[in-house]
Amino acid sequence: MKLLLVLALLSGTTAAADEPPTIRWHHCQLNSADSEGAELDKAGAECGELKVPLDYTRPNGPQITIAMSRLKATGGRIGTMVLNDGGPGGPGLSMPLRMRVAMKEAGSRYDLIGLDPRFVGRSTPVDCKLPSAGWPWSGGADRSSFVRATMQQADIAARCAAEEGSVLRYVSTRNTARDIDRVREALGEKKISYVGYSYGTYLGAVYLQLFPGRTDRVVLDGPMNPSAYGPRLLRDAGPANEAALRDWASWAAARNSTYQLGTTTRQVLAKVDRIYQVSARKGLRVGKHTLDDGAVPMVLFGPLADDRDPARAAYSTFVQTLLKATNGPVQPGPELAEFLDALLTPALSQLVSGQTAIICGDTPVPRDPQVYWRDIQKHRRAEPHFGSLTRMVSPCAFWPVQPQEPPTRVANSEPALIIAADGDPRTIYPYAAELQKGLTAARLLTLKNARKHGIFGEYGNNCVDNRVVSYLLSGRLPATDLTCR
User: Fold this and answer.
1) Other CB atoms within 10 A of residue 227 CB
2) What is this structure's pTM?
3) Per-domain residue ranges for the chain?
């Protein structure tokens, strides 16, 4: 029996439990404060739960709950589509509402399934009771800042060990892929279609590897490099974010009459540098928060994944506020205030706990902080604004459990459509080629001259959107790789 379980585990399947998987469907709204559930109910969706094994090597052992929503097709049904919004650890319950619109005429022809992955959202969530978001976090400007931030990362790991240590070994992308296949089985589908963004591209690739022949149409947007996925996934993103910052600075310089940040790219970047310098020296008081050189890079990193004018305008107001704070306390606008509250209070504890557990679950990392300090120092000149963030030690260096399985090697000929922007500041464009090497039957759709993470249905590029919709309707991949501009 043990040999059978090992063989099943290696192939991505396990021995079936005695009872076939079943989903209990019901209304989505949990209570009067549940606005997400209310929106799903209003749209005609239904929600359900599926029991899956905590540990797939013991399929009849302890079970956890996977929560999902379903927005049924309204005509000309093609099949069932599972959705994942990335994160890692992003909840997906309301994703069908957005995707039905994004998919245009294809949206009404699928049963759209929004999943909260295991240990996220409504799916037996983990919560390490974190005092702030805390990760990712910058190592700051000097050694003392790095030590302080390293202690913060170790504290996150210790809190997770204390609060959720009994389940952390079962958090992995491979287990989430197995959960998806249990959902497929419970839905009575021989094949499912799949759309995944960012981390969802890695999850999709792992599913394709573990369960070949069980997908129909697959779209992977904002692709990750499957051979480099792990806790250091941002390590190569520094240069792309420095370039995105320079592009924004040029945009702001051309609008100096509006933002008063300088008339040249260099002048605008000098204002950003002042923000960094003062935050490292004495901190910036913004509303009820004090931002040091660990927090400022994160504040300026997050919004850079979108180069559209509204996003750049919001980014410019962020920079204006932080610049004023270099001269004394300021009150932030509502958007920045909400961002800082999410980053610097326990508000996102559950979300960040799930994300951290997922990112630590697949691949081991160096456990010596000196490795990260040397890496930051080596690249500080070339990546002055974001290298100390993207190359920083994570809680995974102190994680209480090691990954329970080796990383998944993606090497198959399952069909998929990969979408990538050539200036993506999060999952950099070379990752698309690496993913395509593993998925040899996939086609790549490149959007040129765009610095945006997540394109289909989000960026407003008709060329990309129409190509994807055509594939979702016909099931036919393009004969060759394609380019949109």
Assistant:
1) 16
2) 0.94
3) 68-124+172-231+410-484, 143-166+232-398
Question: Model confidence over 20-43: pLDDT tens digits?
Answer: 789 999 999 999 999 999 999 999
Q: Retrieve residue 23's tokens.
A: 């989903």
Q: 484 is written with which tokens?
A: 């949109």
Q: What is the Cα gyration radius of the chain? A: 22
Q: Per CATH, which fold does 68-124+172-231+410-484 belong to?
A: Rossmann fold (3.40.50)
For the segment 217-266, what is each residue's pLDDT rounded down to a tens digit?
A: 999 999 999 999 999 999 999 999 999 999 999 999 999 999 999 999 99
Burial class from Cβ neighbours inside 10 Å (0-12, 13-18, 19+) for residue 242 reads: buried
Question: How, if at all, do strands 289-291 and 284-286 pair?
Answer: antiparallel
Tokens 């070994």 correspond to what residue? 169
Amino acid at 342: A
Closest CA to 252 of 237, 268, 231, 276: 268
Q: Using CA atoms, how far apart are residues 466 and 468, in angstroms rounded to an integer?
A: 5
Strands 417-421 and 215-221: parallel
Give the pLDDT score at 18: 53
Strand 192-197 and strand 482-484: the pairing is unpaired
